[in-house]
Amino acid sequence: MSSWFKRKEKGIVTPTEQKKETPDGLWYKCPECKTVATMAEHKRLLSTCGSCHHHDRIDAADYFDFLFDNHEYQELDADLRSADPLNFVDTKAYPQRVAATEKNTGLKDAVRAAHGQLNGLGLVVAAMDFKFIGGSMGSVVGEKIARAIDYARQNRLPFLMISRSGGARMMEAGYSLMQMAKTSAKLALLSEAGIPYISLLTDPTTGGVTASFAMLGDFNIAEPGALIGFAGPRVIKETIGKDLPKGFQSAEFVLEHGFLDFIVDRKELKQKLTDLLTMLKAAEVPAAEKAVLVR
Asked: What family does the Swiss-Prot or TrEMBL record give for this protein (predicted)?
């Protein structure tokens, strides 16, 4: 008895010349929930997942692009570069490492600063780039942040710091640690001038950055799920000899324990900042009234 159905070939065979490769960069797969979306949709959502709201890391230029009106801004001190005060060498000489990182990333160092308009409100923003030696804080990072704070103070503009860093830059040793004091002192002057400072902590914000300017905001805010801490969880666990709480060092954990004012989704960041700065502007006491109050 013969079968009424006969398979001539196993599977579907497509001639090689008719095969089409899927171009790279068309699809995005969320590392958390594994949802797949087009890259165009992912970029429209500012590199956040439409399903679980996971926030991918983005660069300083990306923040500038969506925060500043019409994507227009003036970059500050764009050409500052690291020197090599200690003649530091590990697996390669420090100048070689910097040059290679510049070539691979197109960046001059781990922070960029700019001035522009946010929904019509003047704002100075300094944003860190993690892909430049892990967003490490060297002398150029500290100097550019200090100069951005000076610019904000001189022009009486609010200052936004977007932190993303692995901490101090070991290749600069003590010079790196000095940036903690320098940036903190500059922020004290900004505070004395009555100019708002908003600190946005993104994933990850650790080490000397957390121990200085990142936690000194008039408002400390964070993106969802950001890792925030000083030392890493493994180091802390080995030091105290105890298991750490679930979610330890996440933005949500830090908020719950009183170190953040609020967590903001990146898609809502521009409007939240606008609302906050508008509220602060409305609460300002005019100079004439201040003089009366002093008397």
From this structure: Belongs to the AccD/PCCB family.
